[in-house]
Amino acid sequence: MIRYSFITIILLLASFVVQQFLPAFTGMHHSRILIVQLVFLCAAVTVEQPTMLILAFMGGFFWDANCALGPHGGDPQIYTQPVESLRFGYSILLFGAMGFLMQGIQPLFKQGKWQFSAFLSGIAIFLYLTAEYVLINFVRGEFVLSKATVIQMAFTSLLTMLFSPFVFWLLFRIASICNHSINPEAGKKRRRAF
Amino acid sequence: MKPLNLIALLLFLGGSVWAFTRSERGVRDVQDIYFSAMSPFLKSGSKMETEARTFLTETRHSKELEVELAFVRGELGRLRIIESRYRELETENDRLRHALDYKKATHFDVIPAQVIRRQPTTWWQTVDIDAGEERGIGTQLAVLSNEGLVGKIDRIYKDQNRSSVLLLTDEKCQVSARVEGSPEVGILSGQRGRFDGSPLLRLRFLSTDAAVRVGQRVFTTGRGEIFRANILLGRIVSVEKGALDSEALVKPSVNFADLSTVFVVLSADP
Asked: Which residues, 6 or more positions from A10, have their beta carbon under 8 angstroms from its beta carbon?
């Protein structure tokens, strides 16, 4: 189990590298595949809570390092109302919340029903983006929600969710290499059937 | 709750508080370490992209390239002449300013750069360019295209010869702006959640009875220390009068969907 947990951490770090090369789809309202969040969500349902929290911390911390913008700069007498940014570290809490959401359906996953987890990963990403957007509106004031933003969030969630079977397949492969069962009840059922 | 889970949760919350309390400088240091670790992957990715582009360029018809090269050579010669003339005028201008005891003699040196990556984050409107601190680029420098203001340098990737540009279409990129042919000045910035190909910019804090009309051009005022004066920003497409102030929507002069070569304005002011 330790080996499996360690490899999921490596996998999460590797997803940051892959994310660098995934562009936004300009024809689809700049939707994108959020591979980091997807790997985290899929891994979160396969591990125990302490490992999930380590993954959430690393995922959120590095995600913010990847995305945080610099200070506004300029003369404060001219730019009297600078636009606020989200505080570094907010993603850690969002990743943690998503991780707990995924762990909520861990019993189903352990029974071998990974499809529910795959579907929930799409919902979790939509909630994650919504929470992020609401936070931006909260710190900047003046709630603005355009149709394009909703479409962007929906397409991003959908596109990312489509890749979840591949990530689950990868996690099953890693678990099998590490001689670790990530859905033990499904394994028992299979053995009973034979 | 299991004791191990409780300990993990407390450590997680402690780590979150630690991250939340990082200073601006601390965040930049974290980002430097992060992008240094990413650097080998980004460099190899960029190299592969350049090779792919070169391959595609080479496969284009050679005749077409010859014609293009001849045109570019002609254009280069013409621009060299203009540049030399411009330098002469600049020197003359500096001399005259000096003679008149002007304290602010300005130089206008630009560095050309190519856009190598578009919008790498979900919500912020940024692009990466292939010029960094090795070429004298620092943060908060203005970035132009031949059409007008593109944005400003937000981040330098250390030892990677790359930097990130915050585009004018982002809400966080604020520019002190004036309307041509009127005394009106305001703050121009992008709109939240607008990711379409031709986003409109908001020109806020105009006076209530602002005498501005559709079609007027908007330029930088030069105030606020970041952007020089008289850089074209766009054209007014609508005006909305409010009780306390007026606001105008501005169509940017730059086509942000087709950005390739940009110019970073180096600060040479004393």
From this structure: none
